[in-house]
Amino acid sequence: MRSYLAAPASRVGGEVRVPGDKSISHRAVMLSGIAEGRSEVHGFLPSEDCLASMAAMRALGVEIEQRSPTDVSVQGVGLGGLHAAARPLDMRNAGTAMRLFTGLLAAQSFDSHLVGDASLMQRPMERVATPLRAMGADVRTRGGLPPVDITGGQRLHGIEYSMPVASAQVKSAILLAGLYADSPTTVISPAVSRDHSERMLESFGVRVVAQDLRVTVHPPQGLAAQHVEVPGDFSSAAFFIVAGLLAAGGEGLLIRAVGLNPSRAGLLEILRRMGAEIGVENQRASGAEPVADLRVHASCLRGIAVPPALVPLSIDELPVLFIAACCADGETLVTGAEELRVKESDRIAAMSAGLTVLGVEHDVLPDGLRIQGRPRGAAFTGGEIDSRGDHRIAMSFGVASLRASAPIKIRDVANVATSFPDFVALARSVGLDLHES
Ligand code: S3P
Questions:
Q1: 8, 98, 229, 269: which has the highest count of C-beta atoms within 10 A?
Q2: Which residue is catalytic, options 21, 49, 293, 316?
Q3: Long-range CB contacts (< 8 A, 24+ apart) of 139-143?
């Protein structure tokens, strides 16, 4: 089993460019695959999760050429051009792939069988299956969990669906099925969730009407092939943002070309309320998505009660926010984050277990954590942490080493490659003392 050894270090600086956005990379290969003509995707994230989506599209009959790890050329087969996979589609660790492919495949003329690794086989699927069934699809789960079995050849109808949880994966699965329905499909969210699907569908020529928390997709004749520029992944940048804040002074850290979609960037607002000094420079558009360079300065943080409205906008960044909170003056309270319990691991339990090992005073809530920060001296002791096979838990505790009094060993880190294959090299390049063994 792979581990990290993260030794205390405090100087962080220089410049870094994080790899492409995971959410956008999944969607880029999927939409390119069902478009008419050849699409080019630049800045694709060649991580295990996104490669699982690429492998699934190939298994469904789409020709995909990876000209370099990050440049992908996709020969679209059109909306009706996919065909049955010869074997079960293995989504590995990728919840996004599992949910989005369920939506896409529910609308096809053939049957599909979707499986994943041990973690993915424990993640809830009824949240996707229920609305798809309401559209007329035949989708079966095993007690709410994968494997997912789809019987093709169903006629789908547009629906208006109010989601019980603010989930971009559920919303996107329904929108993908809605491409094939006989009338428009509307999804209503209880709170904002990432809108990459809406933006990318529009850029492929689909009529999507989004207003407040409502989005409607109009079934198109076809999708037009595109050039997709994938911005840097804000969720990967988050580890470097917190590292820059926890550093001991210095010139600051420049993180280039980070996707700053407002439905993703809640962490910036939370950290600013905690006193973080983060400059946003060179704002520009990268295709359908906003992008900027972030200049992060070492900052004295103070604890806050995180407004629950910001939680869905920072859901993947909360593990590393907890690390920042441990180094802030006073108490930080995060509530309304019960979705953390059904991610790649139960992230509330996994973070709590690690914080206990590292001597951080905190309380576990059903939907979050209350953390007592230690702003002066070392916020963490050393110790041995179990990442529970969760990439974001592993990377978060790597960042904690910047304020640790002794080395932190982090077990079970191989899954960092699901989202951030070069994490160790990039972390070392800015000053972290991280080794993998
Ligand atoms: C994602 C949506 C989020 C997020 C996940 C990626 C996506 O999940 O946590 O990492 O690409 O749509 P939910 O939709 O379950 O909130």
A1: 98
A2: 316
A3: 139/102, 139/106
